[in-house]
Amino acid sequence: MTTLGTVSSLIAQADLIDPKSMQLMLIFSALLFVIGLVGFLTRRNMIIMFLCTELMFQGAALAMVAFGRMHMDASGQVFVIFILTVAAAEAALALGLVILLYRKRDTLDAEAWSELREC
Amino acid sequence: MEFSQKLILIAPEILLFCGAVVVAVLGLSNSRGIRRAVPFVTALFLAGAVVGTVYVYRNEDALQASGLLFPRLGLFIKCLIGVAGIGLVALGTGTIDRTFENAVAAGRARFDPLRVIRGEYHAFFLLSIVGVMLICNATDLIWLFLALELSSLPTYVMVALSRSSRRASESAIKYFFLGAMSAGLFLYGFALLYGATGTLGFLEMRDVLTTMHQSPEGLPAIAILGMTLALLGIGFKIAAVPMHFYAPDVYEGAANHMTGFLSIVPKVAGMIAIIMLCGTFGWAEHVTFSPEGTEMIQEGLPAPVTAVLWMVAVLTMTLGNIGALLQTSIKRIAAYSGISHSGYMLIGVIAGTENGIDAVLFYLVAYAIGTLALFGVLSGLSRAGHEVESLEDLAGLWRRRPRMAAALALAAGSFVGLPPLLGFWGKLFIFIAGVESGHIVLVTIAAVNSAISAWYYLHIAGVPIVKMTTPRSEALTPQPNGSPRVVACVAGLALLIVPIFSRNIYTFARSSMRYGELTLPVEDATALVDPDTKKTPGPEEDPPEED
């Protein structure tokens, strides 16, 4: 809660924005991030796992937008454009790798790939 | 600063980028001679980039105006990664595409551009190195994020390409997913830092954070959370706990030359990113200047960040060493030993005094040369077409290939920290810096760990010398291409010879760690900067002399 407290005190300084909506945006971004993280750690389908990392990226991007608005600074928005570009590059790579693995084992289950482990 | 000056500073990276394009095209050529020339062209471009870096960093005006946190850090790192890169190219020569090229040469197959990977491999290699070099030139979080991604995205593909086996695909997908997750972590950390400070630039952020730190309320929780997430996320690149568990699996699955790449390049990238971030958060005893021109001592890393890094360092070296004790596969041992070395390097980061960071840079040099020797031996030998995997494969190596066994022993000795070898000096500097900054407990834990690690390093050094040849190790033959073995010998010799120059390397490291942009009147600034500037003459500028 201290984090939220600091955020609202920061928001109070920039009195141009409605603190309520700013808080909502930040909570939403944190939710997206946590859903992504938890999903990544619990799900075993490779496509879903990849989507979860994308969710984490988008959580960060949304936080950037919100903070940029809060500070009335454009660089947050600029960062978001780069995040989207990198996320697209990662998506291309991820799908390529997933298809490579699917062709070898005919399954998307990450558990099927456990040849490398502690002996 | 002017855009053209910014371009001048990254001219070596632009050269390497062009090199990546050239190499990708050459690798598809119909002519076998041109395809064989690809590694040499790659090495040439790397050498050109190192020379270019030395030349570019003579341009004091551009450096002063660059707005970089550590303007001269790039010189050290770019030389190191460029020279290590040449060694790494040599490790892969002759392994990549070998079966297919042999089939083409024997007339069993027709050349098919879709089936060769030589061009792609070397192009991605250069792109990844460009990413590491660009990290040193980062002025803000956007640049740092893009450079980190540029250095890591190609490595995922390289792992998948490096072998055709299922294990390589598995290790690639593990590496990719965990890499993407860690990227998400540090990205969210960056977002929180931006939210706390309202700026993305390192210099402005450092000023804002220092002001907050000295104010009665202290740092806001959101800033501390951001710092922690950013450091933990980047910890993936140096395989620090809790993001270390991928390393053994990925190292085991990738081809040997690729494992050498993975243990050097991402580690350098992560260490530099951590150093730059910690420099932004503020370090103890870095002298800064108040507007009146008087010296003032900065407060140092915020206590929670120090606590996080402390725990990460202790866990990283301990888990790394314990993990390595339980392994029989030499690549898994190498992975765990790499993890523990990250832990030692973090001591220097925590110490944070100028000595600490210099020690980290020095340690990176020692670690890179030792790793080149180790993986030079591993990729220079093969067992009936398979790669060297278990320690048993190396039994009796001393009698049949004494030079390889000697290089292996030198690498292991340097990793333990046996006195005349380079690794000893690296550890010594790190421990001295830790003691000086008052982290006695941390240094004690590291020393105990170092003693534990002697057990498995002595195995690596001893099994080839003491054990008799077994039927399994009988099958061990040298690879047709000799360049990895040359790298192993040269790097092994370097571990013996470079300590003579350790003072020069240390001065070079020190000169590259000075903070940029002194906020004091210009005439005073030049008076303070000048004496040290003259201490960086040309001859000291190629620390690892393995090529």
Descriptive notes:
The complex is a heterodimer of chains A (119) and B (547). Chain A is built from four helices and no strands. Chain A has helices spanning 2-13, 19-42, 46-71, 75-105. Chain A is elongated, with a radius of gyration of 19 Å. In chain B, the strands form two sheets. A three-stranded antiparallel beta sheet of chain B has the order 4-3-5. A two-stranded antiparallel sheet of chain B has the order 1-2. In chain B, strand 1 and strand 2 (295-299) form a beta hairpin. The radius of gyration of chain B is 23 Å and the shape is globular. The two termini of chain B are 36 Å apart. Chains A and B meet through helix 1, helix 2, helix 3 and helix 4 of A and helix 8, helix 9, helix 11 and helix 12 of B.
Outline of the structure:
The complex is a heterodimer of chains A (119) and B (547). With 119 residues, chain A is an all-alpha fold.
According to DSSP, the number of beta strands of chain A is 0
Order of helices and strands of chain B: HHHHHHHHHHHHHEEHHHEEHHHHHEHHH
Q: Assess the beta-strand content of chain B as a share of residues.
A: under 5%
What is the averaged pLDDT score of chain B?
87
Q: What's the tally of helices of chain A? A: 4
- Domain count of chain A: the total is 1
Rounded mean pLDDT of chain A is 87
Helical content of chain B (DSSP H or I, runs of 4+): over 70%
Share of helix of chain A, binned: over 70%
Q: Kindly give the count of domains of chain B.
A: 1
Distance between the termini of chain B: 36 Å
CATH structural architecture of chain A: Orthogonal Bundle
Shape of chain A: elongated
Order of helices and strands of chain A: HHHH
CATH class of chain A: Mainly Alpha
Number of strands of chain B: 5
